[in-house]
Design brief:
Layout: H1 27-31, H2 63-66, H3 74-96, E1 108-111, E2 114-116, E3 118-119, E4 125-126, H4 130-145, H5 163-191, H6 195-211, H7 217-221, E5 222-223, E6 226-227, H8 230-239
Antiparallel strand pairs: 1-2, 3-4, 5-6
Length: 244
């Protein structure tokens, strides 16, 4: 029987807001006096710096958290965790929509020289602003989560044979959202004192993805010519024993 039951429908997403310049926003609470991060581009990212990189709610190794529980079907386990990762990341991004705008995030940046592009149904790569890209990703994932043919909720209803490839695609797209938030908005999370929560969510996400082969190392680290910023965070957590 599915873990989702009758209550798995995620919260409906609303479009990224278009801000009226005459109205107050949350930017002061997120950024202080300026929208722009104060550290230069060449400086070490805050998310790789102590104590921020090590801030977490969970102490120790994530291996025990991601292990398949006894008597639980592995497909069900993957499905319910995909739902939880999506829901939690969606909540974090919802806090950042005031500062993740087309003006301040004109590309879907995931590292100093890395910009993700969206591939349309015709196979054409399109460069999108980060908020447009992320809204497209999260909305498409929500549609999949609500599709009974992809994520069944009824007892004894089998998963589609394409489920493994579907969840791998979902996982790669969620990784890109994590990468953008770390690269472009980690300083906003620091203003909210949310870095322990976000680090723990991401470490859990990485540990689960590697345990069930939903992520390749190349997905996490990127190409040497255009590395993913969080690839270095993954390496750091591996060296400290948080991840294996």
């Amino acid at each position: 029987m599915s873990f989702f039951g009758r209550n798995r429908t995620p919260r409906k997403r609303s479009p990224t807001p278009t801000r009226n310049p005459n109205l107050p926003t949350r930017k002061d609470s997120l950024m202080g006096p300026s929208f722009e991060p104060s550290s230069p581009v060449c400086a070490k990212p805050l998310y790789l710096s102590s104590p921020f990189a090590d801030a977490a709610l969970v102490k120790g190794n994530f291996k025990t958290i991601v292990m398949l529980p006894k008597y639980v079907d592995i497909t069900e386990w993957v499905a319910v965790n995909i739902f939880d990762f999506y829901t939690n990341l969606n909540e974090f991004y919802g806090v950042l929509t005031e500062v993740c705008t087309q003006h301040h995030c004109p590309t879907m940046s995931g590292g100093p020289i890395l910009n993700y592009v969206w591939m349309n149904p015709g196979g054409k790569q399109i460069a999108l602003p980060a908020p447009t890209y992320i809204d497209t990703v999260l909305s498409s994932i929500q549609n999949l989560l609500e599709d009974e043919n992809v994520f069944p909720t009824k007892s004894n209803q089998p998963f589609n044979p394409s489920f493994p490839s579907t969840v791998k695609h979902i996982y790669r797209q969620l990784l890109r959202v994590f990468a953008h938030i770390y690269h472009a908005h980690f300083h906003h999370l620091l203003h909210l004192r949310a870095e322990p929560h976000f680090n723990s969510l991401f470490a859990h996400f990485l540990a689960f993805g590697r345990e069930y082969e939903l992520l390749d190392v190349k997905d996490i680290k990127g190409d040497p010519s255009a590395p993913v910023g969080v690839g270095l965070l993954w390496e750091r957590w591996k060296e400290s024993g948080i991840l294996v």
